Amino acid sequence: MRLMNAPFLILAVVTLVGACAATMLRGLVHCALALAIAFAGIGALYLNLGAQFLGLAQLLVYVGAIAVLIVFVILLTRGADSESLSPAARPVAGIVVATAIFAILAWAVIHSSSILSSGQPAPQTTIRQLGAALMEGYVLPLEVIGLMLTAALIGAVIVAMKENGQ
Amino acid sequence: MLDQIFVSLKYWLLGYSPAAIQPAVSILLTIVPILLVFPVLFALTTVLERKGLGRIQNRYGPNRVGYFGILQPMADGLKSLTKEDIVPAAADRTVHFLAPLVLLAVAFLPYAVLPMGRNMVVTNLDTGVLFFFAIGAISELSVFMAGWSSRNKYSLLGAMRAVAQMISYEVPLLLSSIAVIMAAGSLSTVEIVEKQAGFTGIFPHWYVLTPWGFVGFILFMIAATAETNRSPFDLPEGESEIIAGYYIEYSGFKFALFFLGEYLGMFAISGLGITLFLGGWAAPLPFLTWVPSWIWFFSKLLGLIIGFIWVRGTLPRLRMDQLMNFAWKFMLPMALVVVVSAGAWRFLPQGVTRWLASTVFLALAYLLLARGVETRNKIAKRTYRFAE
Fold first, then answer.
1. A-B interface: how many C-beta pairs under 8 angstroms?
2. Beta-bridge partners for B199
3. Which of B141, B148, B174, B181 should be substituted to probe chain A, the one whose Cβ sees the most A Cβ atoms within 10 Å?
4. What is the percent of chain B where pLDDT is above 90?
5. In 3D, which of B233, B335, B165, B130 has the Cα closest to residue A68?
6. What predicted TM-score, i.e. pTM, was given to this entire model?
């Protein structure tokens, strides 16, 4: 396999160890930090595949924002020292959800490989093309997402303000 | 010749290595100088900073070790190496140990995309500026790791302050960079430097010499000061209120690593400011182009460092509410105005009208925003109830 080189293997191991640690560690903050490792590993995998923008956006959004947000939420709500639920608390629901997600992903992966294995090399996309696509072809979805995020932001501020007034 | 001396040196050394290990040697020859030069610059900066602050505060500063105290960093380094490494009994040992390492690793990574001279860049990434900010986002997590793992109220408070501050000021930092990215039409740091090459008369085509670039540069440097937790934005480590913030519980060499990481972050973000606004390694005047490019980069870097030291010795620390008000009520709208102004600059015809329109627009925005910040906090002579 072309993809099975040393960087890929290292990154895959790091990502998998991080993901496993995120589900198995006892401390909630530890889980969040392990999740950040898994996110960073996925970002590095994207970079390794040559998808620079995707990889860096993954780092910027997931490690820089989502992981910090998770950590803040844990600290501000439950207290960092509370322990997470044991993985065996609801085994049946967990197994069903995990199997369903794995089945969907496996189906998608198998079908995408049948499309791509037609022999042509992967297209080289520059950041300029991505920007042009976002600003020309997909400008309406982009604006809609922007509007939704703004609405969410205003909603968060209003929720916080109400709590302040009481 | 002298301009390319380090590049030629690398290829000359590379010629002597066997072909099988040439890629590895090439990587080493690129990375090791960066790992050497910037810590040495850090050592020199600590002397410069202590001397400069001493001068501002009307005292001598270090003057015992070596000539003019120039060997002080060596003494400091030896001291921190031989000091006992104390880990609090309640601390989370693994995270406590990892935090300074993560911070340092993350502090070194941005240098990969900084062009320090003609052909002197580690990797010319298509998305260089994005890489810089993506790596910078990880440092927030390492600060949090340090503050949380110490199991100390003060360090946790410091970490919360640091993360809140870094997230708030990342927004104007990114927006002021976006103005430059729009003007240059590229995210690659090398290409942004190339776009600023050339002169009109004696004036270089640096973005800082346009109205929007000037305002953007000032916003960028203010946000950079906050992002690197330097005075007057040093609330996360405010010695008089929370002792030393997130690195209270670090002693010996781990503390030195934090110190090093902080200064490396400052150099890196100054380097990005130079790349985006000050023409990178380009000479400031047309008849000075014979001076090697790397000398210009490091001169500009030293200039910005002196600016940081000056600001640190001059301005008092902000309060938390002032910090947040300033970020969200002044910096963010001003950065948005800069983005709009940069876009208008691109489409207005060249000439005096463009300059006038842009300057008037920015000045109006500044006046309005400054009024908004000012009227909310009435500045009056402080009256003391008990002290006088």
1. 65
2. B204
3. B141
4. 10
5. B165
6. 0.85
Question: Residue B381 — φ and ψ, nearest 5°?
Answer: -65, 130
Query: Within its chain, how far is the Cα of B65 from the centroid?
Result: 29
Contact B127 A127 (CB under 8 A): yes
- Taking the CA of residue B224 and the nearest CA in chain A, the distance in Å comes to 17
* Burial class of A101 by CB neighbour count within 10 A (0 to 12, 13 to 18, 19+): exposed
Chain A residues with CB inside 8 Å of B125's CB?
52
Residue A148 CB burial class (10 angstroms; 0-12, 13-18, ≥19): exposed
Q: Which residue of B has its CA nearest to A132?
A: B185
* pLDDT grade for A117, boundaries at 50, 70 and 90: low
CB B136 within 8 Å of CB B234? no
- Residue B56 clears pLDDT 70, i.e. is over it: yes
Residue A93: both structure tokens together: 């629901």
B33 CB-near residues (< 8 Å, 6+ apart): B6
| Placement of tokens 């500009």 in the chain | B300
Report residue A83: phi and psi, to 5°: -95, 150
CB within 8 Å: B167 and A57: no
Q: Hey, of B109, B123, B135, B138, which one would you mutate to test binding to chain A, going by the most A CBs within 10 A of its CB?
A: B138
ipTM of the complex: 0.78
The CB density around residue B368, as the number of other CB atoms within 10 Å, is: 12
**Owner of token pair 């502090």:** B107
State the amino acid at position A45 in one-letter form: L
pLDDT of residue A103: 93
B268 within 8 A of B111, measured Cβ to Cβ: yes
**Closest chain A residue by Cα to residue B137:** A64
